[in-house]
């Protein structure tokens, strides 16, 4: 009988689909993904949940403004978010939407239970409401108050910076005040419940000690929400609707509650610090009122900020993960996100810091270590990794000790969600391994091995230690950078199907594997000045400026008689910019699926190069019979910087067209055109 695995349930907040998600929004999901991957590789049965919070006045107003139904709007936004998580290689087991029928039915039952047992009562709310925050505020809580000439309050600004409006309506209230003492006692008896610990002190000093007020949990002034079964003119207000997703996704109080019984209570709920109050006050009280155990840990992480403060679309200073992935690859983007945010603080994004991390941490430290090791094994050992043996020379002992210490430190830090520090622990091992090359001087041993058997033996031992260390490094970075981890193992000729962090050791290395003959750099160095400018150009403030310029240009064109009204989707570019793009004709010689990547196809093309060019494209969905593409001639962007996608090198881009319904079709050209010919 197979050993029963311990369970681990990790969640992200469910995201409000009111706009495009930037890297600050994406951090939580990537961080939770790293935790989920780490726990799976440590022998746990993991369930990882993320999703979208789709109800509320803001969504209703947004949809109305766009001239669509709220459901249409949230369907489109949810699809965008799912696509982003796929692009970030997020390994979630479920994606809950608050518009899902399973969720709506469960919320109605939960609300009715709380109403029946007297925890919810009907009353009237009069006060200030922020549509953007979906939150009520008292006058004393407002950051700024507007008054008329007679001194009467006419409006104000919430602590978040959003405007509030006066609301006077019938609504249901949850008796939060009833449970304030219980929650205070729970905090005291569970000191690790909220992390970092400073967040708990904030909850106590800012909310519990001043007195916990009852919470409005329904609205009548809009209809886009879950109707209250006992009083359908009311819709369930955000917190009971949104917070309960963590249990409704598991089938709580449904015909099939097997997942709930298996995984609840959650082991870790990851959230941004801005929503700690809702998750650490409202959520525990709701669960307690339902008679359910509380999550074991709620971690309220810091933000990725900019030099000028919090990253936001409204401030025009956001950067988006898709732009970073397209330019620098998935693993560089994931590494930066996880490295940028310390455990108890905020991280500050700058283009310079991002580029330096790519060049120094990834290209110099890790990438160069792999390149040197593979090259030396090919040169000195005929391309085959020697068997590993613990040895007592000083340099090897230093490496052996660092491997053991770094692995132990890494596991402790991952267990306690110190993700940035955990990566730093791995980089200690990377640094020591690079140092080991200089200490061992394999080039000297290579000169001596022809006449000195001991030197030959020592040289083999050095190569084995280098390969073993890289194998261990790959296993440890796999939660953060899964594709890079696969590629390291592939280049070393090792099995890359699974990662076993639980049993990861330096001396588990088994030799006799053929390394690749010409390993491609997994993290190429980039030009600092050029890439800093690229990132700056992708930041929202610049895009807005471009947009305003484009609008002005369009207006000027419209004002010119006889000039067509152009329907371009992107900003105009100057001819020198177009000249930088090299378009070539290429013939598809072979095509196949990328292993463990349902969306990706791998093409071999004759584009007039010395050998076949490989391009990876995410069009598998539209070409189930992809073999029929063989022999077709297509147009490629030939000088696009090569990147790695799921461990496969992609040397360019195949041009496709997008139909009105979203379908993708590869652009083919006349078969008489010569392979490698340029398009002008």
UniProtKB/TrEMBL annotation:
Keywords: Aminoacyl-tRNA synthetase, ATP-binding, Cytoplasm, Ligase, Nucleotide-binding, Protein biosynthesis, RNA-binding, tRNA-binding
'KMSKS' region, short sequence motif: residues: 310-314
Enzyme type, top EC level: ligase
Localization, UniProt: Cytoplasm
Pfam family, one: tRNA_bind
UniProt short sequence motif 'HIGH' region, positions renumbered to this chain: 15-25
GO CC annotation terms, alphabetical: cytoplasm
Quaternary state and interactors: Homodimer.
Name under which the protein is recorded: Methionine--tRNA ligase
Gene: metG
């Amino acid at each position: 009988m197979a050993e029963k695995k311990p369970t681990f349930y990790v969640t992200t907040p469910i995201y409000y689909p009111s706009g495009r998600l930037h890297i600050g929004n994406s951090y939580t999901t990537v961080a939770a993904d790293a935790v989920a991957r780490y726990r799976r590789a440590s022998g746990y049965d993991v369930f990882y949940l993320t999703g979208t919070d789709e109800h509320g006045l803001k969504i209703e107003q947004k949809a109305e403004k766009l001239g669509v139904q709220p459901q249409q709007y949230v369907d489109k936004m949810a699809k965008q978010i799912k696509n982003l998580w796929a692009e970030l290689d997020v390994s979630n087991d479920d994606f809950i939407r608050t518009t899902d029928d399973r969720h709506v039915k469960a919320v109605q039952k939960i609300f009715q239970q709380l109403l029946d047992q007297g925890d919810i009562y009907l009353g009237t709310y009069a006060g200030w409401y922020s549509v953007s925050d979906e939150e009520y505020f008292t006058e004393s809580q407002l950051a700024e108050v507007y008054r008329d000439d007679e001194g009467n309050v006419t409006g104000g600004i919430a602590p978040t910076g959003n405007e509030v409006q006066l609301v006077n309506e019938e609504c249901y209230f949850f008796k939060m005040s009833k449970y304030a003492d219980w929650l205070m006692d729970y905090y005291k008896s569970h000191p690790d419940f909220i992390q970092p610990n400073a967040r708990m002190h904030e909850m106590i000093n800012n909310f519990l000690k001043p007195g916990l007020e009852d919470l409005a949990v329904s609205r009548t002034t809009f209809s886009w929400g879950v109707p209250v079964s006992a009083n359908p003119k009311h819709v369930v207000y955000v917190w009971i609707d949104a917070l309960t997703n963590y249990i409704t996704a598991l089938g709580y109080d449904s015909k099939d509650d097997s997942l709930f019984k298996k995984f609840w209570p959650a082991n870790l709920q990851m959230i941004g610090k801005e929503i700690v109050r809702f998750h650490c006050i409202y959520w525990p009280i709701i669960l307690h009122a339902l008679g359910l155990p509380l999550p074991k840990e709620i971690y309220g992480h810091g933000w990725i900020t900019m030099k000028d403060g919090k990253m936001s679309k409204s401030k025009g200073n956001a950067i988006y993960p898709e732009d970073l992935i397209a330019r620098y690859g998935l693993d560089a983007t994931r590494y930066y996100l996880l490295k940028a945010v310390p455990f108890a603080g905020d991280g500050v994004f700058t283009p310079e810091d991002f580029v330096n991390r790519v060049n120094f941490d990834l290209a110099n430290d890790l990438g160069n270590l792999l390149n040197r090791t593979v090259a030396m094994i090919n040169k000195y050992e005929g391309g085959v990794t020697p068997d590993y043996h613990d040895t007592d020379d000083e340099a090897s002992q230093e490496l052996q000790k660092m491997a053991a210490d770094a692995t132990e430190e890494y596991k402790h830090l991952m267990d306690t969600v110190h993700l940035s520090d955990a990566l730093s622990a791995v980089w200690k091992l990377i640094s020591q391994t690079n140092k080991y090359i200089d200490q061992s001087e394999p080039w000297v041993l290579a000169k001596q091995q022809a006449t000195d058997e001991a030197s030959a033996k020592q040289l083999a031992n050095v190569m084995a230690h280098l390969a073993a260390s890289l194998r261990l490094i790959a296993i440890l970075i796999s939660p953060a950078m899964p594709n890079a981890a696969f590629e390291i193992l592939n280049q070393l000729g090792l099995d890359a199907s699974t990662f076993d962090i639980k049993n990861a050791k330096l001396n588990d290395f088994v030799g006799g594997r053929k390394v690749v003959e010409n390993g491609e750099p997994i993290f190429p160095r980039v030009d600092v000045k050029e890439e800093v400018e690229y990132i700056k150009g992708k930041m929202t403030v610049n895009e807005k400026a471009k947009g305003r310029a484009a609008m002005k240009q369009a207006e000027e064109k419209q004002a010119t008689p006889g000039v067509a009204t152009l329907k371009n989707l992107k900003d105009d570019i100057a001819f020198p910019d177009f000249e930088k793009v090299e378009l070539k004709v290429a013939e598809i010689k072979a095509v196949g699926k990328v292993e463990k990547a349902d969306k990706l196809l791998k093409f071999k093309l004759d584009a007039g190069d010395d050998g076949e060019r490989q391009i990876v494209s995410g069009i598998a969905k539209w070409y189930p019979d992809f073999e029929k593409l063989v022999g077709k001639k297509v147009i490629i962007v030939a000088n696009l910087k090569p990147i790695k996608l799921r461990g496969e090198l992609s040397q360019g881009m195949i041009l496709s067209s997008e139909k009105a319904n979203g379908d993708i079709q590869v652009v083919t050209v006349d078969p008489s055109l010569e392979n490698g010919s340029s398009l002008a």
